[in-house]
Structure formats: structure tokens, C-alpha cells
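Agenda item 2: flavin mononucleotide complex prediction
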Amino acid sequence: MPRIGIIVGSIASGSINRVVANALPALATDPDAQFEIIEIKDLPLYNYELDASYPESAVELKNAIESVDGVIIVTPEYSRSIPGVLKNALDWSSRPWGQNSFNGKPVAIMGASIGTTGTAAAQQHLRAILGHFNAATLGQPETFFHFRPEAFAADGSVQDETSQAILANFVNATVDHVKRHALVNA
Ligand SMILES: Cc1cc2nc3c(=O)[nH]c(=O)nc-3n(C[C@H](O)[C@H](O)[C@H](O)COP(=O)(O)O)c2cc1C
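Presented output:
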């Protein structure tokens, strides 16, 4: 405890947000914290006509979200919002009606971009969606991560002190948030 799922809002094989997501677990100071990536790349496009017979990949997504103690979403910003692939995954996770997998779930969000100001708009949209889902979204630290390739070593670890501090602050605040939430609900 805690087990934390990580959803990456990009399905590009060279996704910088996936690089960041992969680096987070090693920066957690709690030795009991466990992390696993929850994949969204095999989901079909959401269609409510499939609510009665959810596709296997969507059932797997819902089970994965429901089985972890908390969720981290690491997302890029596309066109000043969240990518369509992430919105699609969120739609699948929120249905069928009355079976929203994010209900009451502790969540933390962050995003990486190649610019210095990226993902703030996307994260605001994401917060609104998660509010509607009744997820318990961590307010701080807001993490708009400026991705610089040289900050990461060939093995994916963070080799730049500033980046390390920002990401460690985020992941450790998330672990605390998830643990606090579990205590309150124990
Ligand atoms: C369709 C598209 C729209 C984008 N729109 C934005 C944007 O609104 N704001 C931003 O900061 N970056 C934007 N970018 C640049 C992304 O930050 C950059 O491509 C980043 O690598 C995407 O993250 P990923 O590699 O994890 O997919 C956009 C990229 C694409 C492909």
C-alpha cells in the first residue's frame, strides 16, 4: 500500500509524457508505494451503444482503475486541451451510467511539454472532468513540467537536479494524498 496506477495521455511511442511517467516510481521515497502503467492505446472509440457489452479493453481499463488505491494522470496538452485519446479513456472509465470507476478515487495530475508554459490549459480541463467524476483530485503541487531531453539519462532516470526535485515533489505528494485518503476511508 499504496498501489498507484499511472495513465499517460499520449499513445505516441516517443511520448515525452511517458518518459516522465516511467521516471516517477524511482523518485518515490515510500518503499511500500507501488506503481503500474494503465494502458489506454487499445481502446476503441467510445460509443454508448456498447454500454451493454463493454469491449474487453475497456473492461480491463475499468478494473485497473478500480483495483488501485489512486491514479496519476500524466498528460500532454493538445490544442489547449487534453488529447482525444485521454478523453476517450475517461469516457470509457466513467460508464456505464452509475458505474463510474473514478468515483471517490484519489487522483493526481501533471503534464510535460516541450515549451515552458505547456499543459496548464489541459490540466484545467482535466480537473473539470475529474470534478464531474467525483474524483478526489490533488490540488498542489500543480506540475507543469518543462521537458528537456538532456534531463534524462539513457536508462530513463532523471539526471538533472531541478527536474528531479519537481518530479519527486509531485510523486511524494501524490503518495501522501493516496495514503491520507485511504486512512479517512478506513
Ligand atoms: C496535435 C497537437 C497539438 C498540440 N498542442 C499543444 C498545446 O496546445 N500546448 C502545448 O504546450 N503543446 C502542444 N503540442 C506540443 C506538445 O506539447 C508536444 O508535441 C509534446 O511532445 C506532446 O507530448 P507527448 O510527446 O507525450 O505526446 C501539441 C502537439 C500536437 C501533436
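Discussion summary: The radius of gyration is 16 Å.
Owner for follow-up: CH.
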